[in-house]
Amino acid sequence: xxxxxxxxxxxxxxxxxxxxxxxxxxxxxxxxxxxxxxxxxxxxxxxxxxxxxxxxxxxxxxxxxxxxxxxxxxxxxxxxxxxxxxxxxxxxxxxxxxxxxxxxxxxxxxxxxxxxxxxxxxxxxxxxxxxxxxxxxxxxxxxxxxxxxxxxxxxxxxxxxxxxxxxxxxxxxxxxxxxxxxxxxxxxxxxxxxxxxxxxxxxxxxxxxxxxxxxxxxxxxxxxxxxxxxxxxxxxxxxxxxxxxxxxxxxxxxxxxxxxxxxxxxxxxxxxxxxxxxxxxxxxxxxxxxxxxxxxxxxxxxxxxxxxx
Length: 309
Hints:
Strand 1, helix 1 and strand 2 form a beta-alpha-beta unit. The relative contact order is 0.16. Helix 4 (about 105-115) crosses helix 5. About 40% of the residues lie in helices and about 20% in strands. The strands form three sheets. An eight-stranded mixed sheet has the order 3-2-1-4-5-6-12-9, sandwiched between helices. The longest helix has 19 residues, at about 210-230. The protein has helices spanning about 15-25, 45-55, 80, 105-115, 130-135, 140-145, 165-170, 170-180, 190, 200-205, 210-230, 240-245, 295-305, and strands at about 5-10, 30-35, 65, 120-125, 145-150, 185, 195, 235, 250-255, 260, 270-275, 285-295.
């Protein structure tokens, strides 16, 4: 079986960690490395979280330290959702793997060169590391096969009425990525809000007697409460979407579109502007915008994977 070389760029919080655990069990993927970026919480937490989740998963992948802040704006975190250190009430075993001085953007480029144009990059946080990589290594835009992101939204926002958190956190970086010419799959709020586990599914999975399922229970409890207070249907696993889109694209529906990012507006800062439903179109379609998911099958796969540890 030819395995797909992938890179995982993350501001690792709760759903990022679950996305990694799902990715780690996909037999047709070959994870080349992980890069940490500030976002859900500060880099001082996302970097060790990324290292430590590898210990829980049983695979010590190389982890590289990335950007501590966005390109041009101040850092905005999501502690209210992900907790003080990014993983709710969960505690992870500590990684003792050797650290490297290679920054994330250079590591991404090196992996892309090694993969000879076949590397696919999954990005589930602010896109700062990827933007810096593109600026520092202009050839990278010809070396990445595809970027699959969790971010944006064609029809809705969550941190503002117009913008989703990951894009709003560093809109200038996101605009660099969307203008790069690299094929993009955008798993935004249009699909990720429907990619959830019901409270009953969460409870059942959290009751399984394993280290991974206990981590799932301890990390997600407060977030589930947060969603329920917002009258949502269950536990949204936003960051799992680009992982499963890569391995199970048949679960998803969407459309090719032109997508660009608002970087100068006040009310609209960070909005992913698409031409999906507009009469006027952009000159080119640069992204596949994912709009729907088979929720039941999605939940079944996530549950099966987490139970497999």
